[in-house]
Amino acid sequence: MKKIVTEKVQKMKTSELIQKLNLRVFNSNQISDAEITGGYTSDLLSDVMGNAAPGQAWLTLQTHKNVAAIASLKDLSAIVLVNNNTPENDMLEAAENEGIAVLGSQLPAFELSAAIYNALQV
Amino acid sequence: MRNYRADIHIHTVLSPCASLEMSPTCIVNEARAKNLQIIGITDHNSTLQCALVQQLASRVGIFTLMGVEVTTREELHCLSFFPSATELSAFQYFLEEKQEHIPNLANKMGYQVVVDEQENIIHEVEYWLHTALSVSVNELEKMVHSLGGIFIPAHIDRPRFSLTSQLGFVPEDLNADAFEIFNPQNLSTFSKNIQHKTFIRNSDSHSPSQIGKVFTQFVMPELSFDAIREALRTNSVIFEDKPNSNLRQ
User: Fold this and answer.
1) Chain B residues near residue A45 by CB distance under 8 angstroms
2) Nearest to B168 among A66, A88, A90 (CB)
3) Closest CA to A73 of B167, B32, B64
4) pLDDT, tens digit, 9 for 90 and up, residues B150-199
5) Domains of chain B
6) Which range of residues forms the domain containing residue A31?
7) I need a surface site. Which of A84, B93, B165, B219 has the fewest CB within 10 A?
8) A30 CB-contact burial (10 Å; exposed 0-12 / middle 13-18 / buried 19+)
9) Cβ neighbour number for residue B83 with a 10 Å cutoff
10) Residue A7 lies in a domain
């Protein structure tokens, strides 16, 4: 699992990404329309703690509450659940309290990583 | 009060990764030789070998915690123990329901067999037992406790299949009866609130010589499932290298 962010990567608002990739939005409250500066794909939360960078969208299949805590700790822009996963209630609640977007896609991690990467290039 | 020597994380021949020598007979003989008073049987995602171990161990005065090492959907390992065969079989049903039945390639992944007292194979589990169950760690905790069980996240400081590796840190609101630690020196890496909880150490034996090499002493008025649960609740446990232990070895 490698960082997919490169020097060339453009920024994009969370709302633009949602629209462009037709992502599902799990939040019911207002979420911050954070700037997405790249992505990080990993299901080991210890790895994300060590290696994700602020502003990145985090692609994962993990749905535990700790996902929201680590996204907040690392200042990540959004959580994107791959492969039709849905957040556990307390995870969604924790993310809402932090104002972090919890998004979802039916695509598996590989394809969704590529799609987000490409979306950020234009 | 008495100190009871316990090693409650032992795999049998049923676990694909355990040595074929780990029959109930062998485990009980080894536990006796190592002077253990309590053993815990924790195969991956199956309880099918517990009953025979308990039967053999009770003959020689060793108490058996009948349980299982569950792989949750986060791919982290949790020890779960049950008060009697009734709850254990209810939990076995739950395990089978929550497990994806991927065929086991025994020659690659290891044999998964249930044996009798004479070490004859009486059953082979056809699906791979090491896979993650479709149950979250929180759901598992609730299920185990609803059956009156004991819930202990395994080797939480290890770099794989642990709370730390899979979830980044130990959720402070997780209702665990205790946490198993692999290396006591890692205790200081946990938050203060977690450090104050009950920790135990076990061998996580996959072969006979490992049994009892690492153990925890339970300080209890009597030897029973309830007394063990109470010892965990009140942190009446001792292990080697336990920091700030006010109990004498």
Assistant:
1) 166-169
2) A66
3) B167
4) 999 999 999 999 999 999 999 999 999 999 999 999 999 999 999 999 99
5) 2-153+200-238 (3.20.20.140)
6) 12-121
7) B93
8) exposed
9) 18
10) no
For the record, the structure tokens of A52 come out as 């994700």
Q: How far is CA A99 from CA A56, A103, B76, B198, B221, in A?
A: 15, 13, 28, 34, 51
Domains in chain A, number: 1
Instruction: Give a yes or no: residue A3 inside a domain.
Output: no
How far are the Cα atoms of A1, A26, B163 from residue B142, in angstroms, in the given order?
33, 25, 17
Asked if the structure places residue A50 within a domain, the reply is yes
CA proximity to A52, closest of A64, A67, A34, A33: A67
ipTM metric: 0.81
> For residue A79, what are the β-bridge partners?
A58, A102
Residue A6: inside a domain: no
Beta bridge partners of B200: B180
Q: What is the pLDDT of residue A28?
A: 87
**A chain contacts of residue B169, beta-carbon cutoff 8 Å:** 45, 49, 66, 69
Please name every residue paired with A115 in a beta bridge, in sequence order, or none if there are none. none
Q: Do A64 and B137 touch (CB under 8 A)?
A: yes
Q: Which residues of B touch A65 (CB under 8 A)?
A: 171
